Amino acid sequence: MKRLITLFLLTLSTYTFGQSSDDLLAQAKTQAFDQKNYPEAIKTLKQAIEKSPDYLDLHIFLGRIYTWSDQVEEARNVFKPWFEKKVDTEDFYLAYASLEYWNDEEDRALEILQQGLEFNPKSEDLLYLQARIYNSLDQYEKAEESLNTLLSQNPKHTEGRELLVRIRDLTAKNAIGVTYNFVHFDKQFADNWHIVGLSYRRATSIGSFIFRTNLAQKFGDNGIQFEVEGYPRLSKMFYLYTGVGYSNQVGIFPKYRTGVSLYANLPQSFEGEIGYRQLHFNDDVWMYTASVGKYYQNLWFNLRTYLTPGNSNLSHSYTGTVRYYTKGANDYLGFQIGTGISPDENRSNLLEPQIYKMKTYKIGLDYNFTLGKRNIFWIQGTYFNQEYQRETRGNQYDLTLGFNRTF
Fold it and tell me: Which Pfam families match (predicted)?
């Protein structure tokens, strides 16, 4: 019996010490990923490190397992000596900086990333983590700088694109804007409509707020409307849209309007929304809206619906939008197609409540671009085939020009 035990131990010892460091690393990965057995993976890695103490990949994976098992000081003890040696391996800096970021040591994580980027200035993973940390510290301009560097190298980086779009309104404290909307009807009205919007946006610690004045001409008459919109942040995941408007020219604008939406930044680069819009002419028009958006590389897809309850039926509209981003958050080509009318469109402020129950089809293109860092321009054209009376249809052509200056 003693001979059998001795033979077994000798065989086991020969097998263990006969394995290469790469074999032991592969074994540790199986133990960690497939079996979720972190203690055994740690033992295996320590055996491998005894065989190959200068094999950095072993130390990186050991530090990661300590991180995942909440053994923070043990992970730091693994990473610190290699940081002091100033190794040039990208994966090492990503693992070490992630440890500190996940444990609320953002400044230390940024210090680690700075050294890592000196050796790997084009690393997408390091740049994206740097941007995430700056964003968590509300240092939006620095986050934007990291993301612009990232996207200049890889415009199809989905998560970087999503984050840049989310923080774009927070990187400048102020913005002034002007829009001009021209509407032509081939049958419904003899006169063209003209709408001019003047806006001021202010970024605050709780979100952005916009003050807008709309001037409109319809049937040779003029009207004015005042609006306030806000985008307060509730958390890293949720934020709100809130809007109110007032006008005393009910023939041109609704007397007042309100709207609220709750937005959620969801996993896998999805965004969801649910809310309502209300317009008051002589009576109230209530609409309920929901949308879902998805970033994929340098594309953004969005599907939105508006539901308008009536006395005997439910009117509904749908709009699909695709954007192709060419550079930053404000540089894109857009395509839109749908049915029905959106109360968020500037032109819709001039419509009568019964129009929302008519059948409308639309298709449009828009182009946003920047000149310099602070000048944003856009042009949008939309074609509507609209039922303006029962069984009577007409064509409508919209052209919108816009400009924003941030400062």
Answer: TPR_19, YaiO
